[in-house]
Every structure is written in structure tokens, then in C-alpha cells.
Amino acid sequence: MTEAAARCTPGTPCWVSLIVHGLRTTQEFYAELFGWEFTPGPEQLGPYVRALIDGKVVAGIGQLPPDRHLPVAWTTYLATDDADITAETIRSCGGTVGVGPLDAGEAGRLAIASDPTGAVFGIWQAAAHAGTALAGAPGTPVWNELVTQETSTVAKFYQAVFGFETEAVVSADFDYQTLHLNGRPVASLHGVGRALPRDRGPHWMTHFEVADTDEAAARVVDLGGHVLQPPREGSSGRVATVADPEGAVFTIVRSTTH
């Protein structure tokens, strides 16, 4: 268990948030699954809470307006030193900025964007709120991965916007690239071709650390969620893909480093 750095290198995944229809019931689900406690956060975009583990913030959950019927999904935020400049760069590189840039109180400045394939992500310019403050403990985000049709084209977009270096897996049947900053892996791109879910399209996926993948997957079902891909051995440990009761998809993983 480690405390995260106060300010992330630009491009580093620094925060994850979820906007849902039922804020209270969603809080109850994740409190039972991950042991999260909650504290109020900025409400510029509506009711919003931050999830805590041992008093350290790890994620955010907000509530959609009653008249908004948007897909419910976890959003990965990438750090930036200047949200306005990054938003302009996103546009100039073929992406779209759907929300912002705008201030989130004294916490920082944000925008919600999508890459040229339509995968949604956020950018976060930290002020009082630097982002996820704990790593390596059950219930914390451990990795973020873009699931897309193929990686070669979209990798150029993220390289141009955030300055990532990429390391590809050389394989005829496995399309995977790791994104590096300052020589350190921070995220990945996974091309799945026709296996990409038609109802979701390209999307960023958050992986959360758990103590026991099989036990956590069973608990998801007990709490009203769904198991989309049962527990299996992966390169990073034992993983499962699940969805919460509102349909937000995420991965749970028992890391091989623990």
C-alpha cells in the first residue's frame, strides 16, 4: 500500500469517476464491494461524492440529472498541467471535447473528451485535489486500459496529445501496446478487433485491486451486479470483468505482486 504522488506527470491516469442515476444505491454497492467510505465533493456538475479508503481519496461518484439518459461508465482521467491547452491539442489531433474545460471548485480544472475512435476520457488539471491518493490496496484503481478495435492509429493520437512512448507486443494474434512516461508504464491499449462489444464501442477500462478475485466476483453478483467474464489468469494476475447494478463495467484483479 502506497500513497500516490502529490502531482502526476502529465498523461498519467490520475483519477476515475462514475456518473450514475442512483447515487445512494451505487454508494452502497461499492461500499460493500470495496469497503469504500464517502465524503462530499465539488457539486458544480450535480451531487458528487469522493470514495475513501483509510481516509485517502481513490475515486469519485456523481449523479446524472433526472432527464439525462447517458450510458453509465467509469471514466479515466489523464493528468495535465493545463486543461485548456490539452483540450485544444485534443481537437487539433482529431479528438472531441464534449464538456469543459471548466473549474471544479477549488479542486482543479477538467474536461471530458473522446479520442478519434469515440473512446471517452477525462483530463484533470490538479489544484487542491491531486487525484487518487492511495495505490496498492484492495479497492484502489491499479491500471487503466483502452479497449479498442486496433491500436496503431489511436496510439498516434495519444502520443501526440500526451507525449507517451509506446511499447508494442510483437505478435500476429495479439494487438497490445503499453504507454510509458519517463520510462515507466502508466496505461495500455488493447486491440480486440471484432471482439469489441458492439453496444459499447472503444472504451477505457478501469482495473481495481481486490484481495481475492473469485470472492469479489461472487460478491458483485450478490450485490446485484453481473459477471461478464469469469475469473481467469491474466498477465497481471487473476482477473474478472464485471458490471455494477447500473451497468458500469470494470475489471477486478488480484495482482501477482501481492
3D architecture notes:
The chain is α+β, with helices and mostly antiparallel strands and 258 residues long. The chain is built from four helices and 18 strands. It has helices at 23-34, 83-92, 151-162, 213-222, and strands at 2-3, 13-20, 37-40, 48-53, 56-63, 74-79, 96-103, 108-114, 120-126, 134-135, 141-148, 165-168, 175-181, 184-191, 203-209, 226-234, 237-243, 249-255. The chain has an eight-stranded mixed β-sheet with strand order 3-4-5-2-6-9-8-7, covered by helices on one side. The chain has an eight-stranded mixed β-sheet with strand order 12-13-14-11-15-18-17-16, covered by helices on one side. Strands 1-10 form a two-stranded antiparallel ribbon. A hairpin with a 4-residue loop joins strand 7 (96-103) and strand 8. The protein is globular. It starts with a strand and ends with a strand. The mean pLDDT is 93.
Notable characteristics:
258 residues; alpha+beta; eight-stranded mixed β-sheet; 17% helix; 45% strand
Nutshell version of this structure?
The protein is α+β, with helices and mostly antiparallel strands and 258 residues long. The chain is 17% helix and 45% strand.
Could you outline the blueprint of secondary structure elements for this entry?
Elements: E1 2-3, E2 13-20, H1 23-34, E3 37-40, E4 48-53, E5 56-63, E6 74-79, H2 83-92, E7 96-103, E8 108-114, E9 120-126, E10 134-135, E11 141-148, H3 151-162, E12 165-168, E13 175-181, E14 184-191, E15 203-209, H4 213-222, E16 226-234, E17 237-243, E18 249-255
Parallel strand pairs: 2-5, 6-9, 11-14, 15-18
Antiparallel strand pairs: 1-10, 2-6, 3-4, 4-5, 7-8, 8-9, 11-15, 12-13, 13-14, 16-17, 17-18
